[in-house]
Design goal:
- The chain has about 120 residues and is of the alpha/beta class.
- It has one domain: STAS domain (Transcription Regulator spoIIAA, 2-Layer Sandwich), CATH 3.30.750.
- It has 3 helices and 4 strands.
- α1 runs parallel beside α2.
Length: about 120
């Protein structure tokens, strides 16, 4: 079965900033794939100072997907990279707020990520 999650990673969208676009669904069945996608983006060279994760094309994010975003946020913090979510849907924002993850995750805006307009 084809994964319901896809990504594109664009390095250097601005000095020190990478953009990771997610498309599809982030849930239990795609959590391992999401972990790999986020880990790969964080390991890119040169290491980004900021990793923008564009969630505007995520049609669903369950607690399993949110867990992977939080795990990546922790890894980013430890390597000195700021991980920021952008383009978050109402569903994802509700999940983030309901779980208290808004105390950790940086949600700079609700619009599309850099370079999507």
């Amino acid at each position: 079965m084809t994964p319901e999650l896809h990504s594109s990673h664009i390095t250097g969208t601005a000095p020190g900033t990478d953009l990771l676009r997610l498309r599809g669904q982030a849930h239990q069945d795609t959590a391992a794939l999401l972990h790999d996608i986020l880990s790969h983006a964080l390991r890119s060279l040169p290491q980004p100072q900021v990793l923008l994760v564009d969630c505007s094309r995520l049609t669903l994010c369950t607690p399993a997907g949110l867990h992977q975003l939080l795990t990546a946020h922790r890894a980013a913090y430890h390597q000195g990279t700021a991980l920021r979510l952008t383009g978050t849907s109402e569903q994802l924002r509700h999940l983030i707020h309901a779980t208290g993850a808004d105390a950790v995750l940086d949600l700079p805006d609700n619009g599309p990520a850099l370079g999507t307009v």
